[in-house]
């Protein structure tokens, strides 16, 4: 037993904290990359329709973030797949689905790389340039959905996997699992995914613009305006997500009430969760309403960190280990 194993064995809470971070950080990082092509393409469109160079600069900065973050994710995922390829007892189609997720992510990184690299060459072909940015996010969305299906399959008991001999069998099993009424938590998580993508991409994009202040000297007005613009994406997406979460909570309370299993403690827990998930929306709202968004570095960081904690119930819902 090495020193780290001995430390985690002596401090079980440390092991629990590490496990939670391993569940929270990967999907949050993935979603931060997934939607950045959409937001950058939206800024590019606004630079053409409103004739404002600031939006074009913002779009290029966000594309640079997608380029850096995408290649980092791609490398980390490849290393993780290499280290875990012999540690899983799942059938071969499971590995095929995992590799498919990585290939889709690689395509997305390729599109965002072309989107950023060909910025000047495609200046006279703005439609094609915008399509590259959108294609990056679309393929990243496909990679994310494939990853969610893979995680759902990984949570399936081994007894249900004995009849799987091909990738088609694995996909059929996944659909049979998630289409049953008792697996509604997976669909709840899937409904939240588009809003989570926009919220994390907007929040991460705003924080990236703040970090680029020292390297891209476009003036304080540019950064104050564009950081607020990215924060609007994050705030609005999270507000819609919170309303969706409110609907899920009310439906869960209704099901418990109909089954005569509703307790006052359940209502209190649901109310506390709703209030906590409102915090990121409030923090991003402070940035949106501020005339000097550059002063809100820690507000942006706190909003993104608080929003990342939503990934724990999200992951539990995907693996059918809990409800949103």
Could you explain how this protein is built, in words?
- With 324 residues, the protein is mainly alpha-helical.
- It has a single domain, classed as Formate dehydrogenase/DMSO reductase fold (Up-down Bundle).
- It is built from 13 helices and no strands.
- Helix 1 (3-10) packs across helix 2 (12-34) and helix 2 packs across helix 4 (53-84).
- It starts with a helix and ends in a 6-residue tail after the last helix.
- The model has no long low-confidence stretch (mean pLDDT 84).
Biggest beta sheet summary: none
CATH class: Mainly Alpha
Task: Count the DSSP helices.
Answer: 13
- Total number of domains: 1
Strand content: under 5%
Structural class by sheet pairing and helices = mainly alpha
**Unreliable residue runs:** none
In N-to-C order, the SSE pattern is HHHHHHHHHHHHH
Shape: globular
In helices, the fraction of residues equals over 70%
Q: The CATH topology is what? A: Formate dehydrogenase/DMSO reductase fold
Distance between the termini: 37 Å
Please give the CATH architecture.
Answer: Up-down Bundle
Summed over residues and divided by their number, the pLDDT gives a mean of 84
